[in-house]
């Protein structure tokens, strides 16, 4: 036995000495020999000891009590018996000792044989297979039930053999797993067995086979492995960790079991490892070490998302927080790592982890706060181990940070300030910086974040990263201008400017601070001044030329916002600060797109409305690189280049420089290829380039710019539309371009783009208002018909719609005779009449203007009247715009040539409105038209006279006669004359007129200073007044003779002509309207009865005084009209003028 033991030990040592020895020994047959010598024998210590005890007992006869008879038989034999018994006992002891020695020798030999096989197969696949082939696996498994001294080496041999996949199967099939699990059990009084280490190692290797994992768990392996963390050897603990990790792979049940038992193990340990181990208790130290190992396993498990459910349901997060708070240093690191990984498994788990960690930020122990803060930072800065996208990870971060809403984070910031807990402040700031949507910004403000935010940023205690987060939150809050007052009141400008000045700050902090200042600068010019005086401009200008100091593109944008709304003072200060030179340098093509974009935008703002900066930018060489950017087509950069050129083109010298630099072609191209804002800037640039510059207008015509400009009329941007319209109008200033522009605009009217039709109509309206030649071009280009079609039926014509804009164009075109015809032929009159009732004041006005012009044509009068337009005109006199009222009155004047229209005016209660219009001193044209219509009504139908007088017409007619236009004076005088001719109430009207202040004197003035109709009406009116006593008294009070001709001249100048006229005037004073007379023709002495209808002068016919009569029979010559002038109204063929 001893020889075998020594040989086996030698084989084991040789195999361990060098791997090559394993192969050499195998070739010598060591594997097969060692395997063949394995002799398993079940170890039963109780039975074995019982056998030994039985051999050592005396015989039955010796053990039986001696009877009295025996005792009496002879005492002489007692001594001999005792000696024999002693000899027998000695022989038994010797036999027992020999058997024990033999048994121990056998166990030692088996142990060494197992050790030799362990060494021969360690890392040697060939020998592992050879042992299996030699039948060693069942023998080794059987030896696990043999003497305890053999267990460690037998399990070790199985551990080495299990490195082979086939052997893992064979061991399981030979029922080796339960035997190995059995070795994990503690001995008596909880003693640890050396075999636990190798058994754990064997189970670790066996667990690599999927089927074995369930078998190990069913055998109770998990329950027995985990307790080994407490008190087992370091090697055993290492194998336990490996075994547990293998057992959890692809086995959900094992995962739950492992996690639950690990969490339970940690929970049994102390809350504070350092305090618990202070007394040096081995038990406590072992328990703390167990917590550490369990935490390490959980950390490794957390790397795989497959363990998410198990970790979540086991309560691992809470126990990891305990370890982070009070575990050993190693456990703290492992716990932080595990929490980070668990948080990345799902948004829900992240929320749980974050909430627990945030709670630790309020801990009294600064070390705990520091560890929690570090864990939170690492959790949110490391990439997603599971391979999720950065966008997804950022989303999860936001959701976790905001799980409890904004308010708790703001409170955490406040508490951190109050207690000087920087970690709490920094985490709060980081969390708040993750989300910038409008609703959460509002929630932050409502929770009172602004004041503590500024205080925290100003405290000087935050880390550079935290300051970056604080600046980001402030800049985001500054997006909403409603927050600006509070931000400024809290003194935010100083710390933000401090960040951009601090060379030690991160670029992120500087960028966020600059953005925040830029947004604040958009509020008011006074804020821009405050930012400037805080010293923001010099460092920002320095950034423009040195990107290491700060992002140049951010500096450019911020400087631009400091000049927002064309702040002239700030524009001048930036010029003095030297910003223009480096901004121009940023434009060159070797610079990045963002640099070029920002520089172009800043130069545009600096140049806007600032002639000195326009010149400075040009002198700095800014125009050529801006044009190059246009050609480059770089997205964003070329748009801002167009903006800058648009602002620079306000300078006359720059216009030509831009053109000479080749700026016009790319600007024209941008109208078609750019986005909406690029098109707007390009259109604005072309507008300025074409304005009052014939050379550029010709260049634009050569580039056929009108086509893309017309295409922009339908843009969604109102500014783009406006710029396109203005640019087209500038192009149309040149005769060679005008016709093309008009034709393109007319073509737009035929399309279906409502917005484009609207702007095309506006452009045509502006062109039409410029000159008659433009109106002619518009008409002959075929604009009338599509414009009328745009009117529709005249009902849908709200302001700023294509029908309303088309009406504006047609109203202006209707001044042309050819347009009148085309509008009528296109049925435009009907639409315009309908528009008179529109709810849009603009549409009403356009319709009134158009119909006023159209009614001047005899061919259109009947159509307008037939559409019942008269009441609508009358209604417009009361509620229309001043322009609408003027043209409504004008239309009524044009239409009042027939008795039917006059009757319609009266029936529509037009007299009262016309009288009111006489009092509109600010509407001279309207007064003239109103006076003309009233004049027609006084002469057309005697029944109108009381209505006119009762409407209070005499005073405003007198005022109009005194103050109105020449035409208004004539019509007012005529109307007054008509009122004096009324038969029934004429005396009352004449008296009222005579008593109206200034009436008689003005009539005399009209006689003296006027000629023609006005003079005649004045004379006739005076003749009428003189018929009554009141009138005569008025004339005498005015020191006027009854003969106006005598009052008008001195006696020295009287001659035959005046005497004749005097006599005729005296005769005229004796003849009154309404008198019945007998007219005798000198040629045939025929006598005709008639009624006097008119007394006065008719210059159109001849000098002198005339009497108009209406014959009783149709023997007259007219209807009361003489050469286009209506003196009175009667049936055709009944009227005639007769001289005195």
TrEMBL record:
Residue ranges of ARM repeats: 135-176, 175-221, 621-663, 782-828, 868-910, 909-952
PROSITE patterns (alphabetical): ARM_REPEAT (PS50176), CAP_GLY_2 (PS50245)
Coiled coil ranges: 77-111
Domain CAP-Gly, chain residue ranges per copy: 1097-1135
InterPro entries: ARM-like (IPR011989), ARM-type_fold (IPR016024), Armadillo (IPR000225), CAP-Gly_dom_sf (IPR036859), CAP-Gly_domain (IPR000938)
Entry keywords, A to Z: Coiled coil
SUPFAM superfamilies: ARM repeat (SSF48371), Cap-Gly domain (SSF74924)
SMART domains on file: ARM, CAP_GLY
Pfam families on file: Arm, CAP_GLY
Region described as Disordered: 1-25, 42-68
Xref: PANTHER family: U BOX DOMAIN-CONTAINING, U-BOX DOMAIN-CONTAINING PROTEIN 4
Protein known as: CAP-Gly domain-containing protein
Source organism per UniProt: Chrysochromulina tobinii
């Amino acid at each position: 036995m001893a020889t075998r033991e020594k040989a086996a030990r030698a084989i084991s040592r040789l195999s361990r000495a060098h791997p090559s020895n394993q192969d050499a020994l195998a070739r010598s047959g060591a594997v097969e020999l060692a395997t063949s010598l394995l002799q398993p024998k079940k170890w039963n210590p109780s039975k074995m000891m019982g056998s030994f005890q039985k051999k050592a007992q005396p015989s039955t006869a010796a053990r039986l009590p001696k009877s009295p008879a025996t005792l009496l038989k002879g005492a002489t034999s007692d001594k001999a018996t005792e000696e024999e018994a002693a000899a027998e006992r000695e022989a038994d002891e010797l036999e027992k000792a020999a058997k024990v020695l033999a048994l121990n020798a056998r166990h030692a030999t088996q142990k060494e044989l197992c050790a030799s096989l362990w060494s021969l197969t360690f890392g040697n696949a060939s020998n592992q297979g050879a042992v299996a082939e030699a039948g060693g696996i069942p023998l080794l498994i059987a030896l696990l039930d043999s003497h305890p001294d053999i267990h460690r080496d037998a399990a070790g041999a199985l551990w080495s053999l299990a490195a082979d996949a086939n052997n893992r199967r064979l061991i399981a099939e030979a029922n080796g797993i339960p035997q190995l699990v059995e070795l994990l059990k503690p001995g008596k009084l909880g003693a640890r067995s050396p075999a636990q280490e190798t058994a754990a190692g064997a189970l670790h290797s066996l667990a690599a086979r999927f089927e074995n994992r369930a078998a190990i768990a069913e055998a109770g392996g998990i329950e027995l492995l985990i307790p080994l963390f407490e008190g087992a050897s370091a090697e055993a603990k290492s194998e336990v960790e490996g075994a547990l990790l293998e057992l959890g792979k692809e086995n959900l049940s094992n995962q739950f079991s492992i996690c639950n038992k690990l969490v339970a193990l940690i929970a049994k340990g102390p809350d504070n490892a350092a305090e618990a181990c202070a007394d040096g208790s081995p038990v406590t130290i072992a328990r703390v070490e167990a917590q550490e190992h369990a935490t390490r396993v959980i950390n490794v498990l957390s790397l795989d998302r497959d363990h998410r459910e198990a970790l979540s349901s086991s309560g691992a997060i809470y126990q990891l927080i305990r370890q982070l708070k009070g575990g050993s240093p190693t456990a703290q690191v492992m716990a932080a790592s595990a929490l980070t990984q668990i948080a990345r498994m799902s948004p829900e788990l992240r929320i749980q982890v974050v909430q627990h960690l945030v709670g630790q930020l309020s801990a009294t122990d600064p070390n705990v706060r520091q560890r929690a803060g570090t864990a939170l930072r690492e959790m949110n800065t490391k990439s997603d181990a599971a391979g999720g996208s950065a966008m997804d990870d950022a989303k999860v971060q936001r959701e976790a940070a905001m799980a409890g809403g904004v308010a708790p984070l703001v409170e955490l910031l406040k508490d951190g300030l109050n207690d000087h807990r920087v970690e709490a402040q920094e985490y709060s700031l980081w969390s708040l910086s993750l989300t910038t949507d409008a609703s959460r910004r509002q929630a932050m403000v409502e929770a009172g974040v602004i004041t503590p935010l500024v205080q925290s940023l100003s405290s000087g205690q935050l880390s550079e990263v935290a300051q970056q987060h604080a600046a980001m939150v402030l800049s985001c809050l500054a997006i909403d201008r409603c927050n600006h007052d509070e931000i400024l009141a809290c003194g935010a400008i100083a710390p933000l400017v401090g960040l951009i000045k601090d060379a030690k700050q991160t670029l992120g902090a500087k960028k966020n601070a600059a953005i925040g200042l830029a947004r604040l600068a958009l509020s008011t010019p006074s804020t821009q001044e405050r930012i400037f005086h805080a010293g923001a401009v010099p460092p920002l200008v320095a950034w423009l030329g040195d990107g290491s100091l700060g992002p140049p593109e951010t500096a450019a944008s911020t400087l631009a916002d400091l000049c927002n709304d064309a702040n002239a003072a700030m524009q001048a200060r930036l010029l003095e600060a030297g910003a223009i030179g480096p901004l121009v340098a940023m434009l060159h093509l070797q610079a990045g797109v963002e640099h070029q974009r920002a520089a172009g935008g800043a130069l545009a703002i600096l140049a806007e409305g600032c002639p000195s900066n326009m010149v400075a930018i040009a002198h700095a060489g800014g125009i050529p690189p801006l044009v190059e950017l246009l050609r480059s087509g770089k997205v964003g950069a070329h748009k801002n280049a167009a903006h800058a050129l648009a602002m620079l083109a306000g300078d006359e010298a720059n216009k030509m420089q831009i053109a000479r630099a080749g700026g016009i072609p790319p600007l024209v191209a941008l109208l078609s290829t750019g986005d909406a804002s690029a098109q707007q800037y390009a259109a604005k640039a072309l507008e300025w380039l074409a304005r009052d510059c014939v050379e550029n207008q010709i260049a634009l015509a050569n580039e056929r710019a009108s086509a893309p400009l017309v295409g922009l009329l339908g843009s969604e941007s109102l500014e783009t539309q406006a710029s396109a319209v203005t640019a087209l109008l500038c192009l149309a200033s040149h005769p060679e371009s005008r016709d093309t522009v008009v034709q393109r605009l007319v073509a737009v009217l035929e399309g279906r783009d409502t917005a484009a039709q609207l702007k095309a109509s506006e452009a045509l309206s502006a062109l039409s208002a410029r000159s008659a030649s433009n109106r002619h071009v518009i008409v002959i280009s075929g604009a009338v018909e599509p414009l009328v079609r745009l009117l529709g039926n005249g009902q849908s014509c709200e302001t700023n719609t294509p029908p309303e804009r088309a009406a504006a164009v047609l109203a202006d075109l209707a001044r042309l005779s050819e347009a009148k015809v085309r509008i009528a032929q296109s049925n435009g009159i009907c639409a315009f009449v309908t528009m008179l009732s529109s709810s849009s004041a603009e549409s009403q006005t356009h319709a009134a203007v158009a119909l006023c012009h159209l009614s001047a044509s005899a061919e259109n009068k009947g159509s307008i009247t037939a559409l019942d337009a008269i009441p609508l005109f009358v209604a417009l006199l009361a509620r229309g715009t001043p322009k609408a009222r003027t043209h409504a009155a004008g239309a009524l004047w044009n239409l009042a040539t027939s008795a039917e229209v006059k009757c319609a005016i009266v029936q529509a209660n037009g007299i009262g409105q016309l009288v009111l219009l006489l009092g509109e001193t600010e509407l001279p044209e309207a007064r003239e038209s109103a006076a003309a219509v009233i004049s027609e009504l006084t002469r057309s139908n005697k029944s109108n006279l009381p209505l006119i007088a009762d409407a209070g017409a005499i005073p405003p007619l007198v005022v109009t006669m005194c103050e109105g236009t020449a035409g208004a004076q004539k019509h007012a005088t005529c109307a007054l004359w008509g009122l004096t001719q009324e038969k029934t109430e004429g005396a009352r009207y004449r008296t009222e007129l005579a008593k109206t202040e200034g009436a008689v004197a003005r009539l005399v003035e009209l006689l003296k200073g006027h000629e023609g109709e006005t003079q005649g009406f004045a004379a006739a009116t005076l003749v009428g007044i003189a018929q009554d006593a009141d009138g005569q008294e008025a004339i005498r009070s005015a020191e006027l003779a009854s003969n106006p001709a005598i009052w008008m001249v001195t006696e020295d100048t009287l001659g035959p002509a005046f005497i004749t006229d005097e006599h005729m005037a005296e005769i005229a004073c004796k003849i009154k309207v309404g008198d019945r007379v007998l007219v005798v023709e000198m040629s045939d002495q025929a006598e005709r009865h008639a009624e006097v209808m008119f007394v006065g002068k008719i210059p159109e016919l001849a000098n002198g005084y005339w009497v108009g009569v209406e014959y009783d029979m149709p023997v007259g010559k007219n209807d009361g009209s003489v050469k286009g002038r209506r003196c009175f109204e009667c049936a055709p063929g009944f009227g005639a003028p007769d001289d005195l």
